[in-house]
Write a structure and sequence with these properties.
The chain has 392 residues and is an all-alpha fold. It has one domain: Rhopdopsin 7-helix transmembrane proteins, CATH 1.20.1070.10. Helix content is 70%, strand content 0%. The chain is built from twelve helices and no strands. The radius of gyration is 26 Å and the shape is elongated. The two termini are 42 Å apart. One of its GO terms (cellular component) is apical plasma membrane. It is a multi-pass membrane protein. Keywords: Cell membrane, G-protein coupled receptor, Glycoprotein, Lysosome, Membrane, Receptor, Transducer, Transmembrane, Transmembrane helix.
């Protein structure tokens, strides 16, 4: 699982709360992490592989939203691999891991492994948080017709730049001035926890606001396209709203236990003795949420693919096939244009107005199709309600 306690455990003089959870049935906890991460990894890859009898999706333009969804899954896959590797070493080489607790030890490789594996997991999941935030921003900008494939470069700079900067800054502050002297006080730990949970809290707070604004903008687009709001368009708007709801539901389910666990452990750290009898229920709650984190954090990858694409099935198509080059079809604004200019100004004005109207309708359909990409039912409804979409 992804928790700043992983980096804190690398400190030989770790705090009592971190010692409590990390020493609670470590074999069982590592086994849970390996099992959950392995299942999520296999199912996520299965979801992303092409399926037999499934035609490739045709889009009029390359979508930055589809690229972001794929990058979120890649971050989850790489983060899950980090969990499997770390937990496997933890289980297979207990003597190697025991050297982490040795103060002023001569063998530095246990500490290097501890810090490196923890940073890998934390960095990948933090990048996934930033990509999820970018997805909410991109969805809103697409509907507002202010985004495109070129913005993916800015998203890459923001996501990887902020993820690396916050991770390195948090680790540097935690281990300053050296690994053997870290965790001597909360002034080392608090900045590390803030840089870790900042992107998580950003998604929890800001993404629902952006998703709600996007849904409202989609409704306005659907109403303004033909001046009416049909049943098919209402269903399409509801489908997009449900998709956003599923994404946030998965995120809350997978990461709410982290916030609860961290709050309980910080409360225990504030106590003079965490082993007091009145604190028994809080210790039990912290240990329970610790195990829940080991189950739910790795499952985010698979659950997100369900929210993004729905269940894609078991029939995997591993045969290489030659795909058609998705040549961009001519825009409908050029359809009906005469080779020779019209000699009548009145006819030219009518043609220009139709061209603008058709172009606006096409841009609206492109924006909505990007939001409903990966959703079979949403695409079917879009085909029925959008004339331009029927030719894709």
């Amino acid at each position: 699982m992804a928790s700043p306690r992983l980096e804190t455990y690398c400190c030989p003089n770790r705090d009592a709360a971190t010692q409590l959870v990390m020493n609670f049935e470590p074999e069982v906890f590592c086994g849970v992490c390996i099992g959950s991460a392995s299942v999520s990894l296999l199912l996520t890859i299965l979801q992303l592989l092409p399926k037999k009898g499934q035609s490739p999706r045709k889009m009029p333009k390359a979508s930055s939203s589809s690229t972001i969804l794929l990058l979120i899954s890649v971050c989850d896959i790489l983060g899950g691999l980090g969990m499997i590797f770390r937990s496997s070493v933890w289980l297979g080489f207990p003597g190697f891991i025991a050297n982490i607790s040795v103060v002023n030890g001569t063998d530095v490789w246990p500490s290097v492994f501890c810090v490196g594996s923890a940073m890998w997991i934390q960095l990948l999941y933090s990048a996934g948080f930033w990509w999820l935030f970018c997805y909410a921003v991109d969805s809103y900008l697409v509907v507002r017709r202010s985004a495109g494939l070129s913005t993916i470069v800015l998203y890459h700079m923001m996501t990887w730049g902020l993820a690396v900067m916050l991770c390195v800054e948090g680790i540097a502050l935690l281990y300053y001035p050296s690994l053997s002297s870290c965790e001597n006080g909360l002034e080392h730990a608090i900045p590390h926890y803030l840089t870790t949970y900042a992107p998580l809290l950003l998604v929890l707070v800001v993404n629902p606001i952006l998703f709600r604004r996007t849904v409202s903008a989609v409704a306005s687009l659907l109403k303004g396209r033909q001046g009416i709001y049909t049943e098919n368009e209402r269903r399409l708007g509801t489908e997009i709203q449900i998709r956003f709801f599923k994404i946030m539901l998965v995120f809350v389910i997978c990461w709410s236990s982290n916030i609860i666990n961290e709050s309980l452990l910080f409360y225990l750290e504030m106590q003079p003795d965490i082993n007091e009898i009145p604190l028994k229920n809080i210790r039990s709650a912290a240990l329970i949420t610790w195990i829940i984190m080991g189950i739910l954090n790795p499952m985010q990858g698979f659950l997100f693919t369900l929210a993004f694409y729905g269940w894609t099935g078991w029939r995997v198509d591993l045969k290489w096939r030659k795909r058609e080059i998705p040549w961009e079809s001519m825009s409908s604004s050029t359809v009906g244009e005469n080779t020779y200019p019209s000699p009548v100004n009145y006819q030219s004005n009518i043609h220009d107005s139709k061209k603008v109207s058709t172009t606006d309708s096409q841009q609206t359909d492109e924006a909505i199709s990007m939001l409903s990409e990966g959703n079979t039912s949403g695409d079917d409804r879009l085909t029925r309600s959008c004339p331009i979409y029927q030719g894709w």
